[in-house]
Amino acid sequence: MSRAALMRNRSVKVDLVAEQGLAWIKVIARNAKALRHDMAGLEFGEDSDNEGGLVYDDDDKEEEDDDGELTAEDAFDQLPIFKKARDYLRSAEAHQVHFRAPRVVFAFKRLHPKETENVNQILDRLRDMGIVVYIQGRGTLLDAYGGPLAPEQGCLSTQKVNLDVSTVLALISEMSHHPCRPDQVEGEALQLQAEREATSAVLPVLHGLLHDKSLFMVQTAYDRLTKIVQVVGGDREKMRFRYLFERQGDSHGLEKYHISVVPDAPSERFRRLLEPPPQKEKLNNGRKIRSRFSEFHAVIFGTGDTNRMTTVTAIQWMQTALTDAGLTGVAILCHEPRSLSEQKMTV
């Protein structure tokens, strides 16, 4: 399903996204009086500031059980606030951030501690469902959801990291370790990378992404990388490659890293990206991504998805393309590309 179709199907509105996407904060304008009306079977107008704005909603009528009777517990669970909570929790689960579901926070801006006695049953049920409840006067929002949820330093990723071919190329490239001027390397693409390296070195970025992580590479990616290094790599680039995978030779500044090879195991949702769309759409994001997204990509990124690992890559368009194609909760981190350059450098 494309992103547009996904949004047409169901969406929720979040007032504030914090903690690098790990906290969704929804401001609830209902006061204690409105919540008590909910308990009486009436729905208060959504986020209305008018305390008299009580409305009935046919869509929120309680459903009867098989015997035609509705228990008090069932009726309580059908309150609009709980339906809203379930929608937000489902959406958070579908939009995981590096395989962590965001914490959903309901911030009640018109509830005060002394007024909550009669609505504590609602608030307690929200907490039992997994909603973080924040009430003014009871600490800060950060205290409410037990933050900080994101790391203060470094990147937000899984402990196990899946490396794309482009990332290892950048890690072993001679240009990354010994930058040169554009006129000291052959080829327009490498000259552009030399310009970028002079102003934005890639190794510090990679160290920030990979520090203290367990590193893995898919078998198919390793096979392609091996061929590239054998054909294009210089002596020092080949030595770095052997050290990363075999611990042989000089580390050349990569002593902190070792990469293990894992079997191909692409997830079904990534494999489906290679299939024709089930129906023709005006905005055919499925066909759009298939024009660039190959089986090789499906194996690399899909195996990371199966193993619940963040995939690190230099493919800049991948994240946006996957989102446009309707894939949510994809864990990808990008960096600038650096190609093997030792044999093209004249330093």
From TrEMBL:
Source taxon at top rank? Eukaryota
Which region ranges are annotated with the description Disordered? 44-67
Q: Which InterPro entries does the protein's record reference?
A: DUF1308 (IPR010733)
Residue stretches making up the DUF1308 domain = 161-345
Record-annotated membrane-spanning stretches: none
Cross-referenced Pfam families, in alphabetical order? Answer: DUF1308
Q: What is this protein's record name?
A: DUF1308 domain-containing protein
Query: Where does this protein come from, organism-wise?
Result: Syncephalastrum racemosum (Filamentous fungus)
